[in-house]
Specification:
This protein has 17 helices and 13 strands. With 444 residues, the chain is α/β, with parallel strands linked by helices. Strand 11, helix 12 and strand 12 form a beta-alpha-beta unit. The radius of gyration is 21 Å and the shape is globular. The chain folds into three domains: 54 residues, no CATH class; 134 residues, Rossmann fold (3-Layer(aba) Sandwich); 163 residues, NAD(P)-binding Rossmann-like Domain (Rossmann fold, 3-Layer(aba) Sandwich). Helix 2 packs across helix 17, helix 5 crosses helix 17 and helix 16 packs across helix 17. It has a five-stranded mixed beta sheet with strand order 1-2-4-3-5. It binds NADPH dihydro-nicotinamide-adenine-dinucleotide phosphate (NDP) and (2Z)-2-iminopentanedioic acid. The site of NADPH dihydro-nicotinamide-adenine-dinucleotide phosphate (NDP) has 24 residues, from helix 9.
């Protein structure tokens, strides 16, 4: 049996009931085959892949808090420190009822390669909880965040592990967590990113994932003879990534016609009104049913459906496994030119293969959404030097990083005879740096 197949089989055996983790490992290992085969004897002796798929350590803890009725609630908290061979662990905290260890491990594993692609010194980690911030009062969210950080603070630090936002964790949650960290540790340091601007946050971090997605997509289009201007774009999600992806797409002259949340989706043939979306989601924390109040000519549909709309570019920006084979077929039938993943692993493996086989340009999340964590690393730099850069400075660095990521993965794909396969390119380019660092640092 090949080394790759053997390691994958072991991952499934050792980590049953973690299907998302299996999926992420399979996608990476499958595309690393040519690199592994070229170095098989050495990597086997060094057990490089066995070390890569086993987190350095993982924490699972009880998070008790009191709700507004005086009832004690108990959630489960997680932090998986996956790999710190190129820098301190870095990755977000997801707060969503679906969170379990397998989901945090898939996200942490992806983060290793994503962070490597940014070219910045950050390792891979991820955390979160099955807490659901939806419908909770600010006081309840604060009570949860304080309890969560009371345990998490034992394992993190500005040079050890630096968490940030993800689904359900935005500026409000990061603020409460930062306050609690500071109170317990009496240290004022950049232990979290995505902080508010008044206490060490970076300008452009809020926009970074969505903007970065568009910078990379534009570069991919340009290198294939196209341009964002004039294109029709379908976006899923209506959170942090979706909102700023839509904003930058419209700034580039494209028309974004959809967005969605977990209840339904909006079609606005005149182009999504970003200010309305921001008010509904960022200020009111409301549902997308409200969008019609701002734009009476738009349509609201219950359930899924974004990928049935005719578009040139599709940007899945909600969550994992939200673009299936039927959706890929609908996109191809409607003449879709490119899919770029704002979310982590939103496209199933068979859907990805179908899109690629049918000539759709496909940018995988670990490259396309790396702008968020890259800007987090820029926030860490600013915290270290106790300075704040301007919006333009951060945004222009972000743009440079995204353009560079695209060319690195394009080159890596070409080096292994897989021109245009940006999934393989991203996995190979991300892996090469981490593998070199791991081998240089000996057995650890
Ligand atoms: P938010 O919480 O701001 O928004 C998430 C959006 O996706 C909401 O519209 C939400 O709808 C929808 N959504 C979430 N879970 C589901 C689900 N199970 N089914 C259907 N819809 C769902 O999160 P972000 O925008 O920050 O994150 C979106 C994606 O981008 C995630 O995959 C995340 O890992 C990834 N990402 C985020 C980065 C960041 O900097 N924030 C960086 C890189 C990647 P609803 O409100 O109804 O739940
Ligand atoms: O998936 C991701 O890259 C994030 N949620 C952002 C992580 C970070 O540390 O900014």
């Amino acid at each position: 049996m090949s080394y790759v197949d053997q390691v994958y089989e072991n991952v499934v055996k050792k980590n049953p009931a973690e299907p998302e983790f299996h999926q992420a490992v399979k996608e990476v290992l499958d595309s690393l085959r040519p690199v592994i085969e070229a170095n098989e004897e050495k990597y086997r002796r060094e057990a490089l892949l066995e070390r890569l798929v086993e987190p350095d350590r993982q924490f699972k803890f009880r998070v008790p808090w009191v709700d507004d009725q005086g009832q004690v609630q108990v959630n489960t908290g997680y932090r998986v420190q996956f790999n710190n061979s190129i820098g301190p662990y870095k990755g977000g905290l997801r707060l969503h009822p679906s969170v379990n260890l397998g989901i945090i491990k898939f996200l942490g594993f992806e983060q290793i390669f994503k962070n490597s692609l940014t070219g910045l010194p950050i390792g891979g980690g991820k955390g979160g909880s099955d807490f659901d911030p939806k419908g909770k009062s600010d006081r309840e969210v604060m009570a949860f965040c304080q309890s969560f950080m009371t345990e998490l603070c034992k394992y993190i630090g500005a040079d050890t592990d630096v968490p940030a936002g993800d689904i359900g964790t935005g500026a409000r949650e990061i603020g409460y967590m930062f306050g609690q960290y500071k109170k317990i540790k009496s240290v004022y340091e950049g232990v979290l990113t995505g902080k508010g601007l008044s206490y060490g946050g970076s300008l452009a971090r809020t926009e970074a994932t969505g903007y970065g997605l568009l910078y990379l997509t534009q570069e991919m289009l340009k290198c294939n003879g196209h341009d964002m201007a004039g294109k029709t774009v379908a976006i899923s999600g209506s959170g942090n990534v979706a909102i700023y992806a839509a904003q930058k797409a419209q700034q580039m002259g494209a028309k974004v016609v959809t967005c969605s949340d977990s209840n339904g989706w909006v079609y606005d043939s005149e182009g999504i009104d970003i200010d309305a979306l921001k008010e509904i989601k960022e200020v009111k924390r409301a549902r997308l049913t409200e969008y019609k109040n701002y734009r009476p000519n738009s349509e609201y549909h219950e359930g899924r459906g974004v990928w049935t709309v005719k578009c040139d570019i599709a940007l899945p920006c909600a969550t994992q496994n939200e673009l299936f084979i039927e959706d890929a077929k609908a996109l191809v039938a409607n003449g879709c030119l490119a899919v770029a993943e704002g979310a982590n692993m939103p496209t199933t493996m068979d859907a990805t293969e179908y899109l690629q086989k049918n000539g759709v340009l496909f940018a995988p999340g670990k490259a396309a959404n790396a702008g968020g964590v890259a800007t987090s690393a820029l926030e860490m730099s600013q915290n270290s030097e106790r300075l704040s850069w301007t919006f333009e400075e951060v945004d222009s660095k972000l743009k440079g990083i995204m353009v560079n990521i695209f060319h690195n993965l394009d080159d890596a794909a070409k080096r292994y005879g897989k021109e245009g396969d940006y999934v393989a390119g991203a996995n190979i380019a991300g892996f090469e740096k981490v593998a070199e660092a791991m081998l240089a640092q000996g057995v650890c």
